[in-house]
């Protein structure tokens, strides 16, 4: 019986893995340049952490979270996002006593969404979180880091920026927004109607075509920011200008939770089609406190690796494989044993090589060498073992040259 993989959860096959390695190694390199250090937290947390840390009013927690009872003892959840777990660890290990911290993570997330292109049930995120600094230049620096990262991968992504206000200016705005949306209920989709009471800011995020006229005409928080939020946004913009990072202010860009304040941003790419967001971030100055830590401002983003992989592939960013330098073709049992030994020797010297322990017809072994993309082949049999001499064949040019088996490593290093 064939058992298929779980719907919405993907394999990344060896032919594609190098793009993933690149995404992650460039992230590690670039993030380190900005002082971010990696943290690893579990894929499973108490369900309650997300209810509080992401919010009960969100789709992520409300509809999409994988929750299970662990042998009837406690409710656990597969993490739907990375921030809550990182904040938990930040608090649990008392990291705040050391002053401001910049952390990043890489790993799988789980949401029971309707699978479609760019939207999966297990997906992977790379994210940054910076704690302990409320000043707007931190926001600018973090956004610039992400722009820098995309630039190094040759990815063109558009940056949208907005402010979602704070506890001073948001409540009055929300009341007006609710009243406006309620008045035009009939023109909005069922999802929007659902959210008017629960999470009115999120309504602005709706992508349904028929909702757009109503939402475009909705009152804008951007026009009603308090002094503090207005100055903050201006400073983020000044920082981005100074760093040469282009942005577009999008008054409808939101993060639909109470402890998100001020800066909200998103990077989108045309290469992605309808799921166009490749990364999203925002300031969450009250989250650490909400999760039981001391008041500590913070700002973070998460980027979707599957979506980034799609862009890289579309850009023709080749997935590279490390092909063997040499493939040993064996003529007999003696040659097979010698190949095993010589291969070990070359690998010790850092030279990739391969052989086929099945032996068999030499023609088939040469075919195999070509299939795996080997640069050279060396035939080994009793004769080569006795003389210590063999022929190194360049599989591209078909040229052969004699080589002493003892000098194979240096011959391969300096062809
Ligand atoms: P979207 O509006 O696309 O649903 P979101 O607001 O739910 O995104 P975040 O929670 O901010 O997304 O996650 C950050 C990034 O993670 C997204 O920009 C996207 O690239 C990626 N992402 C989110 N959900 C998924 C998913 N189900 N499958 C693949 N990638 C995802
Ligand atoms: Mg989503």
Any overview of this molecule?
Strand 9 and strand 10 (277-283) form a beta hairpin. It is built from 16 helices and 16 strands. It is elongated, with a radius of gyration of 28 Å. The mean pLDDT is 95. The protein starts with 16 loop residues before the first helix and ends with a helix. 36% of the residues are buried. 38% of the residues lie in helices and 21% in strands. Residues 81, 111, 113, 118-120, 123, 125, 275, 277-280, 302-304, 306-307 line the site of adenosine-5'-triphosphate. Adenosine-5'-triphosphate binds at residues 81, 111, 113, 118-120, 123, 125, 275, 277-280, 302-304, 306-307.
> What's the pLDDT, averaged over the residues?
95
Q: Flag low-confidence runs.
A: none
Distance between the termini: 50 Å
Number of discrete helical segments: 16
Biggest sheet, strands in spatial order?
1-5-6-11-10-9-7-8
Bound molecules: adenosine-5'-triphosphate, magnesium ion
The total strand number stands at 16
Judged by helices, strands and strand pairing, the structural class is alpha+beta
Helix content estimate: 25-40%
| Gross morphology | elongated
Question: C-alpha Rg, in Å?
Answer: 28 Å
Proportion of residues in β-strands: 15-25%
- Largest sheet report: 8 strands, mixed
């Amino acid at each position: 019986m064939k058992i298929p993989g779980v719907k919405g959860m993907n394999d990344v096959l060896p032919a594609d893995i190098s793009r993933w390695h690149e995404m992650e190694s460039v992230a590690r390199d670039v993030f380190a340049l900005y002082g971010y250090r990696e943290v690893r937290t579990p894929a499973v947390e108490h369900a309650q952490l997300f209810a509080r840390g992401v919010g009960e009013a969100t789709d992520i927690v409300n509809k999409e979270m994988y929750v299970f009872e662990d042998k009837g003892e406690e409710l656990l959840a597969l993490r739907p996002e990375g921030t809550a777990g990182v904040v938990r660890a930040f608090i649990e290990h008392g990291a705040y006593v050391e002053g401001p911290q910049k952390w990043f993570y890489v790993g799988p997330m789980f949401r029971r969404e309707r699978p479609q292109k760019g939207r999966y049930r297990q997906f992977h995120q790379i994210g940054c979180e910076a704690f302990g600094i409320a000043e707007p230049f931190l926001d600018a620096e973090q956004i610039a880091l992400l722009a820098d990262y995309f630039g190094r991968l040759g990815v063109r992504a558009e940056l949208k920026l907005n402010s979602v206000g704070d506890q001073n200016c948001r409540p009055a705005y929300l009341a007006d927004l609710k009243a406006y949306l309620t008045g035009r209920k009939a023109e909005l989709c069922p999802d929007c109607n659902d959210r008017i009471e629960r999470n009115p800011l999120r309504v602005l995020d709706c992508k349904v075509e028929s909702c757009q006229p109503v939402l475009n005409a909705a009152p804008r928080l951007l026009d009603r920011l308090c002094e503090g939020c207005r100055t903050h946004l201006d400073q983020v913009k000044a920082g981005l200008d100074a760093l040469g990072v282009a942005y577009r202010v999008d008054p409808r860009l939101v993060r639909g939770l109470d402890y998100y304040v001020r800066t909200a941003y998103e990077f989108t790419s045309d290469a992605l089609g309808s799921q166009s967001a490749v990364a999203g971030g925002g300031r969450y100055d009250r989250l650490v406190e909400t999760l039981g830590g001391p008041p500590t401002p913070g700002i973070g983003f998460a980027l979707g690796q599957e979506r980034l992989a799609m862009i890289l592939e579309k850009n023709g960013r080749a997935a590279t494989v490390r092909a063997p330098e040499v493939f040993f073709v064996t003529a007999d049992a003696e040659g097979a044993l010698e190949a095993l030994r010589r291969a070990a020797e070359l690998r010790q010297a850092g030279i990739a090589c391969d052989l086929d322990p099945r032996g068999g017809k030499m023609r088939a072994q040469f075919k195999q060498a070509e299939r795996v993309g080997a640069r050279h082949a060396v035939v080994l049999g009793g004769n080569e073992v006795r003389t210590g001499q063999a022929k190194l064949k360049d599989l591209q040019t078909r040229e052969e040259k004699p080589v002493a088996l003892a000098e194979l490593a240096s011959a391969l290093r300096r062809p």
